[in-house]
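ligand=flavin mononucleotide
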Amino acid sequence: MELMGIIKGRRAVRKFADKEIPRENLVKILEAAIWAPSGSNTQSWEFILVTEKENIEKIKLISPGLFGNPKALVIVCINTERAKKGGREGIEMAKMDIAMASQNMMLMAHSLSIGSCPIVSFNKVALKELLDIPDSIDPKLILIFGYPEKWPRAPGRRPLKEVVHIEKFGEHIEE
Ligand SMILES: Cc1cc2nc3c(=O)[nH]c(=O)nc-3n(C[C@H](O)[C@H](O)[C@H](O)COP(=O)(O)O)c2cc1C
């Protein structure tokens, strides 16, 4: 699949088929994460892979935004100790870094026909307790993965001519 096809074809998938994801594909997805750019190359991220069904079920109980039956979760965290190396803006940069790593993972998943969805709606305190996450590690996002039952239709996008400004704000691109 060419890159634009992967970018446009990725969807937030919330319903999954009862089919396991091979370990090597999960490793490819995680490898895509660590090749994302990061501010000053601090790589202030940690990723927790969860594939045991009973662990996924426990996480679902504390995550109101997590529906369906994903086969794997990646908990995307900021390592706040490393982020401090980025100075005053370290934590802000780390948020951008994990967003880029997350998109890498979702695009890699899509290229392997695996669906994904980012989930922010979860109880952070309960998750930290459940997964033994130390104080310095801040879980920000859960990515869910599985083979889609079917690919959802694409929700609309604001058009280029509305969101792109040429040279100065308010001058729009011709289409
Ligand atoms: C930061 C972020 C948080 C999100 N949180 C949730 C969530 O908690 N639950 C959920 O079902 N979808 C969540 N989504 C998925 C969005 O609803 C979805 O990406 C959006 O509707 C656009 O659809 P698309 O990804 O298929 O293009 C989240 C997406 C992002 C980027």
